[in-house]
Amino acid sequence: MLREYLFIARVIGGAIALIGIVNSGEGGDFAQAARQPHDRQTTLNMVEQSVIYRFFELKHNRRFEIKNNSIFANRDLENNSSIDESELRSLPYLNEEDRAIALTLTDVVILAVQNNRDIKNAYLQRIADRENLAVELDKFSPNIIPEVSLSVGSNDLGSLTTNSAQLGFGAIVSVALPTGAEISAEWETSSIAQNNSEAAIDDETRLQQNIELRFSQPLLRGFGREVNLASIEVAKLSEQVNILNLKSTLIETISNAIVAYRDLVRAQEQVEIERLSLQRAKELLEINRVLIEAGRRAPIEIVQSQTNVANQEVRVLEAENDLESRQLALIEILDIDQQTKITAIEQLEIEEAELPQEQELIDLAYQNRPDFLQALLDLEIAEFDVLLAEDNQRWDLDLEASYISGLRTDTDDTNDLRAGLNLSREFGDRTLQRDLETSRVNILQEQNRLEDLRETIKIEVRDRIRDVNLLRRQVELARTAKELSAQKLANERELLKLGRSSIAEIVRFQEDLVEATNAELNAKINYLNALTQLDRTVGITLDTWEITVHAFPKLD
To answer: How far apart are CA 403 and CA 415, in angstroms?
Structure first.
C-alpha cells in the first residue's frame, strides 16, 4: 500500500497548499543563522512569508517512484524528463520476505510533510484565513448593484380596461472612505406605457428618471484614518498569526517525526544487540557442553548456561515487540498504511560542532520562534482593540448631505438638496464601558505574557544548551565504556578456555557488554534528539531542513 502512497506523492498536494523545500545552503548550522534587528517591522517581515500554493519541491529535488519492487527517488523533477534508472537512488526492500521498506531521515521528513493530516488541515485552514483577509482589504472598494425590472398589468373599471407595461433599469453605487465617510449614488430610469379599451382615450407613454446622491461623514465616533484602517491592520496582523500557527504545526510535526524515526532506529539496534547477545549465550552454551564432555566442568553447570539462553530469548522477544510498537508510532505520524513495514537505515553519525554563544541563540529564538512572534503580534492587535474601544466611547456626530433629482415627461422636474448635522448617543448601555476595560486589561495581559515568554525562552535555551553539552560528553564516555566491556568479555572468554574463569563471570560480562552497548546507543540518540529539540526551541527547524514557506501573491 505504501508503494502507491509514495508513487502519488508528487501529485498529492494539488488540492491543498504544500511546502517548497529549497536548496539554500547549510540552514542547519547555528553559527550561520542570520541575526536581524528586532522591531515591529522586522517582526512582520519575518512572518510575512505567507504560504505557498503550488506543488511540493522535495529536498535535493527528490520524489519517489515504485519500480521493480524498489522505491526510487527521481532527481530530475524540474524538467519532468524521463527516468533514467541508472541515475535513480534506490531504496530497496531490505527483507524480501517481510517487505520492509527502507527510509532515511530525510525521507521521513518528506513523507510527514506530505501526508500528515494535521499539516493538511493547517493548509486548508489557510485558504479560509486568506479569504478573511481579502474581505477586509476590500473594505474601501466600491460596491455596485445593477437593477433591471419589467412589469405588466391590467386594470378593469366598469367597462374601461386599462393595460400597462413598465420597463426600468438603474444602479446603486456605494463606497466607504478611510476618513469614515460613506458616499452612495442611486440612478433609476423607467418607461411606462398605457392603453385602454376606449378609443377616445389616446395611448400614453411616460418616461421618468431619478438620481439620488447621499454623503455621510462622522465627525466624532468613527472619524479618521487611524480608526477606519484599524480593522485592516488587525486583519493583516491576524494573517501573520495564522502563518505562524502553520509554521508551528510544521515544526511540531517534523520534530515529532524525527524523534519517532530515531526511536525506531533505537528499537532496531536494540533488537540486533539482543540477538547478538543471544548468539553469544548459545555459543557459551556450546562451549560449556564441550567442557562438560571433556570432564573439565560439572554437568550441573550447564543449567546456568541454559537459563542464560532462555532469558536472552525473552529479551529478544521484548525488543522485537518494542520494534513493532515504534514502527506503528512512526506510521501514525506519516499517515500511511498501517500494514506497511518500514526500516530505518539512517546511520547514527555524531558530528563535532561548537554551538554559538548562549546570548546569540537566545536572540535567534526571539527572531524565529513562532510563539514569541505571535505574542508580539497579539500585543499589536490588543493595542488596536483599545483604540477602537476608546472610539466607541465618543458621541455620534454625523455630517449628512443629499441631493435628489427627478426628471419626468408628464410633469415638471424636481430637485431637492439637503445638508445637516445629526448628534446622538445611547445611554444606559454598559457594554461599551465593559469593552473598553476589557481591552485595557487584555493589553496588560499580553504585555505580561510577552515578558513571561521572553524569560521562558531564556530558560529553555539554556536548558537545551546544557543538555547538548552534557549528552555529547555522555556519548564519548559511553563509547569508551562499551570498548572496555567488549575487551573484558574477550579476555574472560580466553580465561574460560584455559579453565581460569567460570560461566557466571562470562554471563555477567556479557550482560555488562549489552548494557554498555545499549547505553552508547541511547547516548547517541539522546544527543541527536537534544540537537533536534534545540532547533525546535530556537525556532529554526524549518531552516535546518531547508523548508521555505513561500508566499501567496501579495494582496494590496
So the answer is: 7
Residue 99's pLDDT band, with cuts at 50, 70 and 90, is low
Helix, strand, coil abundance in the chain, percent, nearest 5: 55, 20, 25
- pLDDT digits 0-9 by tens, 9-38: 333 333 333 333 323 333 333 333 333 334
Per-residue pLDDT tens over the stretch 233-242: 999 999 899 8
What's the grid cell of residue 410? 408628464
By C-alpha distance, which of 363, 100, 135, 309 is closest to 236? 135
Question: What is the per-residue burial (b if ≥16 Cβ within 10 Å, else e) of 24-61?
Answer: eeebbebeebeeeeeeeeebbebbeebbbbebbbbbee
d(CA 447, CA 452): 9
Position 203 scores a pLDDT of: 60
pTM (predicted TM-score): 0.72
Stretch (H or E) spanning 421 = strand 414-424
Per the CB < 8 A criterion, the answer to whether 143 and 48 are in contact is: no
Secondary element (H or E) of residue 515: helix 503-538
Distance separating alpha carbons of residues 249 and 119, to the nearest angstrom: 7
For CA atoms 540, 545, 546, 547, give the dihedral sign: negative
Q: Residue 530 — pLDDT band, cuts 50, 70, 90?
A: very high
Q: Which residues contact 73 (CB under 8 A, 6 or more apart)?
A: 62, 63, 64, 65, 88, 89, 91
What sign has the CA pseudo-torsion 479, 482, 483, 484? positive
Contacts of 292 (CB under 8 A, 6+ apart): 298, 299, 301, 302
Rank 43-52, 151-160, 373-382 by mean pLDDT and report only the highest.
373-382
Q: Which of 96, 100, 90, 93 is nearest to 64 (CA)?
A: 90
Distance CA 242, CA 237 (A): 9
191: region left, alpha or beta (phi > 0 left; psi from -120 to 50 alpha): beta
pLDDT in tens, 250-292: 999 999 999 999 999 999 998 988 898 888 888 878 877 887 8
What is the tens place of the pLDDT at every residue in 488-509?
888 888 887 777 777 778 778 8
Among 391, 378, 382, which Cα is nearest to 439's? 382
In whole angstroms, what is the distance from residue 240 CA to residue 45 CA? 9
d(CA 464, CA 28): 16
Percentage of the residues of the chain whose pLDDT score is greater than 70: 78
C-alpha cell of residue 217: 461623514
* Adjacency order of strands within the sheet including 341-344: 63-67, 70-74, 89-95, 100-103, 341-344
Rounded to whole angstroms, how far apart are CA atoms 391 and 121? 38
DSSP element (H, E) containing 247:
helix 230-293
Number of H helices, E strands in the chain: 12, 13
What phi, psi does 89 have (nearest 5°)? -90, 120
